Amino acid sequence: MKVVDLTGMTFGRLTVIERGKNSKTGQAYWWCFCECGEVKQFRGTHLTSGRSTSCGCYSVDRAIKHRMSGTPEYRAYYNMIKRCEYINDHRYMDYGGRGIRVCPEWRESFEQFLADMGPRPTRNHSIDRIDVNGHYEPKNCRWAVKETQEHNKRPRKDSPVGVRGVRHDGQSGKYIAQIYVNGKTRRIGTFITLEEASAARKEAEARFWGVNND
């Protein structure tokens, strides 16, 4: 099917500059210039359907207008986008650098994000992805306390041992296992082998978190 040339057309705050690359499924993408000065790619069908009308600045403007920009929910929203899209963010490589994205519905509307997520339950809650390799979208996100997020955390990318909650002590050559409980990191013990430390960590997860690793 022939793709309609959208170059030069305007959709809300967006003006189409040129054709981008197709997605893996063959969807046409277009580079657009936003009134705020941002340049981003958008799916053609999102432009023509009215789903995408700004780079996200419209949502920000509306949030500021409604005095939401200082709320913890908006800070979570802003930081979520920042770590997925801004390469200078210190967390980018763990999020945007791994292909983690914010779904279009949320990217275009803070109000939609708030409607799906609801208010943050307590100051100890933050946004958490259920599937750590999945995107930020309604079915994959929840407000969670740090203990819950620790259950779901993948090993650090720079971990030489590749086991969550276990690190290698370069001086002694031994392995240290630890776990996050009741707002603090608790040391489980020091072990000669990685296998012993891993087993101790699993036992601690079952005891403190109720996690079955079998």
From TrEMBL:
The answer to whether UniProt assigns keyword DNA-binding to this entry is yes
Keyword annotations for this protein? Answer: DNA-binding, Transcription, Transcription regulation
Q: Does the keyword Transcription regulation apply?
A: yes
Where are the annotated segments for Disordered?
A: 148-167
Where do the AP2/ERF domain residues begin and end?
Answer: 162-214
The record's section on Gene3D superfamilies has: AP2/ERF domain
Which InterPro entries does the UniProt entry name for this protein? AP2/ERF_dom (IPR001471), AP2/ERF_dom_sf (IPR036955), DNA-bd_dom_sf (IPR016177)
Task: Provide the protein name.
Answer: AP2 domain-containing protein
The beginning of the lineage is: Bacteria, Bacillati, Bacillota, Bacilli, Bacillales
